[in-house]
Automatic annotation (TrEMBL):
Protein known as: MET23 protein
Record keywords: Methyltransferase, S-adenosyl-L-methionine, Transferase
Family according to the record: Belongs to the methyltransferase superfamily. METTL23 family.
Native source organism of the sequence: Tyrannus savana
One GO MF term: methyltransferase activity
Gene: Mettl23
UniProt xrefs under InterPro entries: Methyltransf_16 (IPR019410), SAM-dependent_MTases_sf (IPR029063)
């Protein structure tokens, strides 16, 4: 936990998503995984250690976060895991050149409402390119007024809530945080909505 600034800190949501990745470990060998907004990369590192082919990404505008991804890989003896700069909402050469993806990981990417549409634009692009892929995401409930439901409809995406108790992540010590107040972590899986008639 080197720094409490955004992508340089292992937030409780990352711990919960890493627990879900671990719970799915038997299905991960050979799967192609992309972690967005990776920061310290805990979920992506766990996926790589479980045999997935992982690519880590964070904003190309945040070189410290990209360096944090690289440092996490080296610390965990994963020197060959690629780290790429992807900025949400931007169709960049790096985004266009990504290979096929089965699973997209994102912990606490739904942090600032001004970024929600950019995140879902990027997720929609990736899911359109990989229609059978899923976006596994955890987030901390910070405001009852924040919702992505309207944006999910706009981008023809659907979400499935995953109860934390279903993968042993409802224990207080697992997602404990030194932040003041009580913190509720939620998990959902986002995928392309089925078209009518399919």
């Amino acid at each position: 936990v080197p720094d409490s600034q955004y992508g340089l800190y292992a937030w409780p949501s990352a711990v919960v998503l890493a627990q879900y990745v671990w719970a799915q470990r038997r299905s991960l060998p050979g799967r192609r995984v992309l972690e967005i907004g990776a920061g310290v990369s805990l979920p992506g590192v766990v996926a790589a250690r479980c045999g997935a082919q992982v690519t880590l990404s964070d904003s190309e505008e945040l070189p410290r976060c990209l360096q944090s991804c690289r440092r996490s890989c080296l610390t965990n003896r994963l020197p060959h895991v690629p780290v790429v700069g992807l900025t949400w909402g931007r169709v960049s050469p790096e985004l266009l050149s990504l290979g096929p993806v089965d699973i997209i990981l994102g912990s606490d990417v739904f942090f600032d409402p001004k970024d929600f549409e950019d995140i879902l634009t990027t997720i929609y692009f990736l899911l359109e390119k990989n229609p059978h892929a899923q976006f596994w995401t955890t987030y901390q409930v910070r405001s009852a007024d924040w919702s992505i439901e309207a944006l999910l409809c706009k981008w023809n995406l659907r979400s499935t809530h995953v109860p934390l108790h279903s993968f042993g992540a409802d224990k207080e010590h697992l997602a404990s945080s030194s932040l003041p107040g009580r913190h509720t972590i939620e998990m959902m899986i986002i995928s392309l909505a089925q078209s009518e008639g399919t």
